[in-house]
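Why do we care about 3D structure at all? Because function follows from shape, and shape follows, mostly, from sequence. That is the central idea of this module. The next example makes it concrete: a single protein chain, its amino acid sequence, and then its structure expressed as tokens.
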Amino acid sequence: MPYPAHTRVFTRLLTARLTRLLTLCLVTMAGLAGTLATAQAQEIGTQSLDNGLTLITGTGTNILVKQVANGDAVVIDGGLQAYADQTLAAIREATDDADIALLVNTHWHPEQTGLNPVLGARGVPIFAHENTRQWLTTAITWPWENRTFAPLPESAQPSETFYHYGDLNVGGTTLQYGYLRQAHTDGDLYIYLPEDNVLHGGGVVDNAGWPLMDWWTGGWIGGLANGLEVLLEIANDDTVIVPANGPVMTKAELQAMRDMYSSIFQRISDGFRAANSVTDTLSQDPTAEYDARYGDPEQFIRRAHESLVPHYTPDA
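And the structure:
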């Protein structure tokens, strides 16, 4: 017996809607699978720096691993959480499966704190500046791209913090650390290994392109130049300098970087004092001679200009 006409119409509509829903589900699943495959396929690189030091790349930042005198490992920065399993595998391979005695966060950004959840849950001490710990306890929304970062669980937050500078003895190896004040953020630190003459500059040093001037959490262009000056006072001509991104550097290269940012800071701040808008600053090309090396500067210039507001017009 044939179905009534209204029933046939309803059946066709229902079938069409189910087909669209199934298609949407399949597309969503394919997107998720693609994202997972991208994370799984991420190429993690390692570079031996001798004396028990290994540089791990491809995780969102440069990770420096030091196998200390008693055989344990110190890990400086952790990469993105999406690559945590691969990062830990690279650390195990580089250190012959050594225990991790300390994780250092050079600042709060996700590229630096991706190992915090897994290592913090294991009870590994996490060392950072106190401002970094505080940022990781709260939600942060960047106004320039409306991107929000959730706070980390308490076990993933830094468990050991400092305010100024000092020394750590980890497994018989000395680590010197210091605060870089308001630079890339307001919680930047450096780690210097005097026995190896290796200096990790954290987010204040970016050798792959223009850095993010995270003024929302206390960074600013003048502080970036000042932070590089502090690192120059620590380094000598033989120091291996590890940036947050890009290849390791010499002191001469760090000096050239400091001179560049000092010049850019002067140009942008001169215009700011003359009541330049962001558009005015962009039109003056304050980075022109460096763009071939560092790439499109627009976002860097915008954030650098904005970073002057709390320093030059704090009541604005």
